[in-house]
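Internal QA ticket QA-208
Title: Verify multi-chain structure generation after dependency bump
Assignee: T.L.

Test input:
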Amino acid sequence: MKTIPYGRQYVGKADISETIKVLESNWLTQGPKIGEFENALKKYCGAKYAIAVSSGTAALHIACLAAGLSKNDEAITSPITFVATSNAIVYTGATPVFADIDPCTNNIDPIRIAEKITSRTAAILPVHFAGLPCDMGKIHKIAKRNKLIVIEDACHALGAQYRYNNKWVRIGSCAHSDMTVFSFHPVKLITTGEGGAVLTNCKEIYEKLMMLRSHGITKDKNRFVDKRNKACGWYYEMQELGFNYRITDFQCALGISQLKRLDKFLSRRSEIAHMYSKELDKFPGIILPAEGDGVISSWHLYPVRIHGMCRKEAFDYLRSKGIGVQVHYIPVYLQPYFSNLGYKKGICPLAEEFYITEISLPIYPLLKDREIKFIISVFKSMFKGAT
Ligand SMILES: *Cc1c(COP(=O)(O)O)cnc(C)c1O
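Actual output:
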């Protein structure tokens, strides 16, 4: 039996031919496509700077370093996320602090953020879960009041928007944050195979990120510590400990081509979400995700909460019918690695309650109408069987 996955890429003919062109050129990496992709990204999102890197995790890592996170610092984030968000905090030596979610949006609750602030808090990492923007206006105010850096984990939310003071703000414009991070893994909104990016409006942060992406090395004469070497053509300086987090040119060619199709991807995702919502609305025993007023979701996921029956039963049944549902997410601090660090069950009761009931239904641009109808009918039949 063929399984319908919960998410997958859509790589078309144009994407492939653009990628092949680069494979046949002189530059496989560190060539012109990287800058082109970065320009397209910052233009789409409305930010001043963009840095493309090898993964969303790499992007989160260098964003945390550019924010100056280190040992003794705390950074507040959501427990309903992929482990990469909190791991990036841990990589810097800082401590992740988990603030509970708002069960209406499943996003981190600004009130809970404020409660977790201590003298050691240095940053907030809100996660736009499933593609639904967090309340960035409130988070920005809390951050300003407490002099905290804000890094948006927007791995689910490329293309999402929210209204602020009667203006639409695009995720990635960093209107209410210092940096925004994206992932281009195949299940995300657009793909480069593996890949990620950091967007920012701050020149200093941008320069720091550029160094961290490539071994902490600069070739910019004007920034050399040792000025005597300014005239030496071979000279470069490693000024801090960086990484090889570079992305390749052929990946960026794919990314440029994908980004051109993003708006079409987004409208198909929204269409699918509305098909589910229309059919499953008022169906007893479930809670559907809602966009709410003043936000446009990118619909990376369609997270349903099952109350009418046991989640494991529902999960196993849907999987047995070839529907590749998934659970997003196990609250991060419940993972053994974090339990071993001393995080206890009960830190975020609403996140734990969410986890117990959540199932993500398939959503991606290539999902066909007849597959959606099939998923809806199987989903409904499951409840009839249960009662
Ligand atoms: C996918 C994802 C990441 C990590 O991105 P990679 O490109 O897979 O490294 C981080 N945070 C969230 C919320 C994600 O969904």
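Spot checks passed. The chain has a mean pLDDT of 96.
Status: verified.
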